[in-house]
């Protein structure tokens, strides 16, 4: 059983960490890399749009994935 709230909180503090907690290592690493690149893009202003989107998407995805895992609907 995975705790959806914990997964979301982990992603709040570090994008991708909630996915790693849920056992989706590759997706978590992809989130971490994308978030890092998005942070670098803040130098050319587009990162101010993409960074919050990735951050929120990571939290929502971690929460929903934990709920799916608990319901037994894993892929």
Automatic annotation (TrEMBL):
Transmembrane regions: 32-58
Keywords: Membrane, Transmembrane, Transmembrane helix
Domain of life: Bacteria
Name of this chain's protein: TM2 domain-containing protein
